[in-house]
Amino acid sequence: DIQMTQSPTSLAASVGESVTITCLASEDIYGSLVWYQQKPGKSPQLLIYGATILEDGIPSRFSGSGSDTQYSLKINSLQPEDFASYYCQNGLSTPWTFGGGTKLELK
Amino acid sequence: QVQLKESGPGLMQPSETLSLTCTVSGFSLTSNGVGWVRQPLGKGLVWMGTIWAGGSTNYNSAVQSRLSISRDTSKSQVFLKMNSLQPEDTGTYYCARQVRYYDGYYHAYYFDYWGQGVMVTVSS
Q: Which segments of chain A have a pLDDT < 50?
């Protein structure tokens, strides 16, 4: 199975700041990396797939990058609604494994 | 628009069999896959299994021996059945549409629409 390791597990930031969350795959996933946002009590929402492709309707302050085993999610100019948990997912092969999550909190 | 909604019992006893239904609208089960993802309280996401547009299934090996996913395309419903429930099966169960992105070289499978989730507690 492909293991997905996210860092950090939690992160405190202020509105207007930029943050980066990283995801490390245990093997090359050839850009098949997916990012989700989950707010408390809500279901996950798709942000980015194919490592860099922004889902329709997602603000452009979200961006994804990376290749091989290392991937990043960057959020520019944090807005109040961005404080949530973020998960990466291996989209290459089954089992579709998720990272452990990063909780982004308001400083 | 695309919607998915889970339904099923909220409280189960250990060793019982869980039956959940995912009712979808806005797309056809013969065109897209539907997966089930579990989230223990306060923890991360775990994929459990997927039924694909053609009717084939994939399961997470961690639960494969206990899990069955099926569907009724005429009713736009996907079913999850998991036997021998244990307290560690407690969590929120989501169904989600699973799609494939392919650019001619690389692909990615991902969940683009999710249901609201159903909380299942396994306790005696």
A: none
